[in-house]
Design a protein that fits this description.
The complex is a heterodimer of chains A (about 260) and B (about 280). Helices cover about 80% and strands about 0% of the residues of chain A. Chain A is mostly helical and about 260 residues long. Helices cover about 70% and strands about 0% of the residues of chain B. Classes of the chains: A mainly alpha (about 260), B mainly alpha (about 280). Chains A and B meet through helix 1, helix 3, helix 4, helix 5 and helix 6 of A and helix 1, helix 3, helix 5, helix 6 and helix 7 of B.
Chain lengths: ~260, ~280
């Protein structure tokens, strides 16, 4: 009885706001003092339908820069993570803490300087600039996940492959990366989520020239008509969720085919 | 040498951005000629209006982090105690984590404005007759709206990490405690909670620093006077005269130094954690 009640409470608090948003998206005229909307119409859907190309363009741009950020963080973090996991040296904990700092300090403290820097370098208002600044802010999550991954695997596989004469590239592609897949997925999902839902950095560095879903969403959230904002928020949720489901099912299938799982 | 790939984001952008902030706060490398003294911007920080923003930011960050950590720890325990089938189904608690901050702020807006959903419920309960009678939760100068938004967003974060710790604790300790006569509250506070202390400290630092300096939620839900530090800096940087830029940068430098102290603490705490219990 009590466990069910607790579960119901958790589920209710987590999901009820989404239900309310769904309510707003089918009942744009829902106002005080109705608890349940009295009139339903499809205005929000019609509006978004007419704006479909623009919505899709912003969403595609967001997905693209988030995925690029994931790839870039992965490439940048692989070798440092290997080093942190395998070697012991003086000041290691401090150095690791320093490298994690960009995710912990308020983003603004360095991004304003980066903005000035990018204006000089001509990277402000460019797609590449957005990817770079998102990478700076989110790579610590990837680094952390990869260090943990390398530590969990242990050095034996690598040594064994090296003894059998495998070169650097073979070891990386056929031993390390396949074993690291769970960590890459863990770190990658956090990085993707952080990049995909970031509003301020994209708005600051992208300056409106780089399309983003959060930037598209923002004015609707502040408008007095809540229906479009609600619908877009629900749409927003669909992207990372479906991406996670896709990755999960692909990985499970590959593992099964190889008889690992 | 193997650390060199990180030089691009870390040294070039992170440290580079900080250096530029420091130098602009001192009056160098500004887009406009600057005729003030080196430390003028820092003396301008003592302005009472800015000090009030500092107070508000600290207060909002402290309250939201404390509430998130305590509620999250209790929920982590609750989820851990659920029967297996329900335990697996309880992943729904992660929903607020996937929502972007601006969407969480929007949800708070939908529920808590004077004509929002809670106001409507209060009307039907006979507690009020017009929306104006609903208490000013959002813009009532106590930052309540922001605290609500941060808490809703951050409780699941604590649940995930707290639950990861509890996963490795044998459920039998609870049974043993109960057999020895411990009540529900005593079991939680003296048997289960100590396992989570370290992860709670770490989560507190992460959440506190985030709420202290983040921009998204205050931009939607914040009050204007005094505003949160991040919004004040944004206004100084973009909306007003370019001459204010050194002051904006000086605020940022101080915010950075303040958070640096916490990061030192974080590094000490986090290195004592098990690998699986860390997200960052």
């Amino acid at each position: 009885m009590i466990p069910r009640f607790i579960y119901a409470l958790i589920a209710f608090v987590s999901l009820f706001p989404l239900l309310v948003l769904a309510g707003y998206s089918i009942a744009p005229g829902w106002t005080f003092p109705d608890i349940i909307p009295s009139r339903f119409d499809a205005r929000a859907f019609e509006y978004l339908g007419s704006q479909a190309p623009s919505v899709l363009r912003h969403m595609a741009s967001s997905v693209l820069y988030s995925l690029l950020t994931v790839c870039l963080t992965l490439m940048l973090c692989l070798s440092p993570a290997h080093h942190f996991a395998r070697c012991d040296f003086r000041g290691k904990a401090t150095l690791e803490g320093l490298f994690l700092a960009p995710a912990l300090v308020p983003v603004m403290t360095f991004s304003m300087g980066v903005h000035s820097l990018f204006i000089r370098l001509g990277l402000a208002d460019t797609f590449m600039g957005v990817v770079l600044v998102l990478t700076t802010f989110s790579y610590p999550y990837m680094l952390r996940a990869l260090v943990a991954g390398y530590q969990a695997i242990g050095p034996e596989y690598e040594q064994c492959a090296r003894n059998l004469g495998a070169g650097f590239l073979t070891r990386l592609l056929r031993i390390e990366l396949p074993l690291l897949v769970p960590s890459i997925i863990a770190g990658g999902s956090v990085v993707f989520l952080v990049a995909f839902s970031e509003y301020f950095l994209v708005f600051l560095i992208g300056g409106g020239a780089v399309d983003s879903f959060t930037g598209y969403l923002f004015p609707f959230l502040t408008s007095s008509d809540r229906s479009v904002g609600s619908l877009l928020t629900l749409l927003f949720l669909a992207v990372p969720v479906s991406l996670f489901v896709l990755v999960e099912s692909v990985v499970t299938r590959v593992y099964r085919n190889r008889g690992i799982y | 040498m193997k650390l060199s790939p990180l030089l691009v984001p870390f040294v070039l952008l992170f440290l580079g951005g900080l250096t530029l902030a420091v130098s602009q706060s001192l009056g160098f490398w500004l887009p406009l000629p600057y005729d003030g003294g080196m430390f003028d911007a820092y003396t301008a920080l003592l302005d009472p209006h800015l000090l009030e923003s500092v107070g508000l930011s600290l207060y909002v960050a402290l309250v939201s982090a404390l509430v998130s950590v305590s509620v999250g720890a209790m929920l982590a325990y609750a989820v851990w105690r659920l029967p297996d089938t329900l335990e697996r189904a309880s992943v729904v608690y992660k929903v607020p984590l996937i929502l972007p901050h601006i969407a969480v702020a929007f949800i708070v807006l939908v529920f808590w404005t004077k004509s929002g959903l809670f106001s409507s419920v209060a009307y039907h309960l006979g507690l009020l007759n017009t929306p104006a009678e609903f208490p000013s939760v959002l813009y009532g100068n106590y930052g309540l709206g922001m605290i609500l938004a941060y808490t809703y967003k951050e409780v699941p974060f604590m649940v995930i990490l707290g639950y990861a710790v509890l996963k490795r604790v044998s459920p039998r300790v609870v049974v043993a405690a109960k057999m020895l006569g411990a009540g529900e509250v005593y079991t939680f506070s003296h048997v289960v909670l100590p396992h989570m202390y370290r992860v709670m400290h770490v989560v507190f630092i992460i959440l506190f620093l985030y709420a202290f300096g983040a921009f998204d939620i205050p931009f939607l839900l914040g009050e204007s006077s005094p505003g949160m530090l991040s919004v004040e800096v944004f206004n100084l940087y973009f909306r007003r005269d370019l001459a204010n830029r050194p002051v904006a940068m000086a605020v940022l430098v101080c915010m950075f130094l303040f958070s640096l102290a916490f990061i030192v603490l974080y590094t000490k705490l986090a290195s004592s954690l098990e690998q699986k219990e860390r997200k960052l």
